Amino acid sequence: MSHTEKPTILVPGRLHEHAVKRIEALFSIVRLERADAALVAPELAADVRGVAAMTGIDAAFIDALPKLEIIASFGVGYDAVDARHAAKKGVMVTNTPDVLTEEVADTAIGLLLNTVRELPKAETYLRSGRWVGEGNYPLTGTTLRGRRVGIFGMGRIGLAIARRIEAFGLPIAYHNRSRVDGVGYEYHETLLGLAGAVDTLISVAPATPATEKIVNRAVLEALGPNGIFVNIGRGSTVDEAALAAALADGTIRGAGLDVFADEPRVPQELLVAPNTSLLPHVGSASVHTRDAMADLVVDNLVSWFADGKPLTPVPEAVFVQKG
Ligand code: 8YV
């Protein structure tokens, strides 16, 4: 790409600094306060050929950019991007799979252990002087020993979590839209069926219309009074009011949550519950992994503008060709 041919890339809202720096070096970058069609001035509409974003991109924003060719989204979950609309308009959409898989799986295991063995609470106990003052931290009522683990969403991250759980010596079952080829774990056709067969449910499910509030009262009842629910996927997949009620009335034993329906707001009932372990959506949040995600965002743009071959197109857009 010669200097004069540099495509204009629009970055609405905040984006990882490493991605911004590389876009600045390789493209002509334009920043916008947020991805709002009303903010797109005519000069911008005439120029922008790519969007790199960590934020939602709706149909109106796509329509406001007639020269748009590609939306490079930061993150593996791209529910905030209207990928179907983009693809319909011939706009490529990419996400950042693979590079975050092991990090998110690590976090899921940490969250599971924090929930079951109360490690954050035990640390707070020590730091606040209670070990000295009151003696040993109480034995935890829950343990990983003897648990049966169900994984909801057997994609790349689900598989990476399953590999780790295998090393813990625990049996694994799963539910997914469909059975995954080559995966030998016990498969359940429904989430309810899976919840009934396990006592530890780890959700890695993406946000789709089909998964909206799918972790509901019935699923939590099926998980049962010794049940532990861990969510590392998306908050919208959980009926949070039902979860808070289930935690309060003993329908399940505890929950570890990294994601919430209305981030960064966390329902008060979940914040004050003694049997929750909560994280502020840090599944992939190490410098190492976020830098790798940033690189993949930019590499998708580079590859698209060089030869029309994005590295990681989302399924809705795989058929989109560079015009
Ligand atoms: C986000 C995530 O990328 O990849 C995902 O789907 O949930 C995260 O890694 C992160 O929250 C940045 O917005």
Main features:
12 strands, 13 helices, alpha/beta, 2 domains, Rossmann fold
Sum this structure up briefly.
The protein is α/β, with parallel strands linked by helices and 323 residues long. The chain contains 13 helices and 12 strands. Residues 54, 74-77, 100, 281, 283-284 line the site of 2-keto-D-gluconic acid (8YV).
What does this structure look like?
The protein has a 7-stranded parallel β-sheet. The protein has helices at 17-26, 42-47, 59-63, 83-88, 101-117, 119-127, 130-134, 156-167, 191-197, 217-223, 240-248, 268-272, 287-307; strands spanning 8-12, 28-32, 48-53, 70-73, 92-94, 149-152, 172-175, 186-188, 200-203, 228-231, 254-257, 276-278. The protein has 2 domains: 8-99 and 287-317, 3-Layer(aba) Sandwich (Rossmann fold), CATH 3.40.50.720; 101-278, NAD(P)-binding Rossmann-like Domain (Rossmann fold, 3-Layer(aba) Sandwich), CATH 3.40.50.720. With 323 residues, it is α/β, with parallel strands linked by helices. It has 13 helices and 12 strands. It is elongated and about 70 Å long. Helices cover 37% and strands 15% of the residues. α1 runs parallel beside α13, α5 (101-117) crosses α8 and α9 runs parallel beside α10 (217-223). The mean pLDDT is 97. It binds 2-keto-D-gluconic acid. Residues 54, 74-77, 100, 281, 283-284 line the site of 2-keto-D-gluconic acid (8YV).
Spatial strand arrangement across the major sheet: 8-7-6-9-10-11-12
Number of helices: 13
Q: How much β-strand is present in the residues?
A: 15-25%
> What name does the CATH topology of the largest domain carry?
Rossmann fold
Number of domains: 2
Note the run of SSEs as H and E: EHEHEHEHEHHHEHEEHEHEHEHEH
The CATH architecture assignment of the largest domain turns out to be 3-Layer(aba) Sandwich
Q: Give the N-terminus to C-terminus distance in angstroms.
A: 17 Å
* Strands, total number: 12
Oligomer: single chain
The averaged pLDDT comes out at 97
Q: Tell me the major beta sheet.
A: 7 strands, parallel
Structural class: alpha/beta
Rg (CA only): 22 Å
The CATH first-level class of the largest domain comes to: Alpha Beta
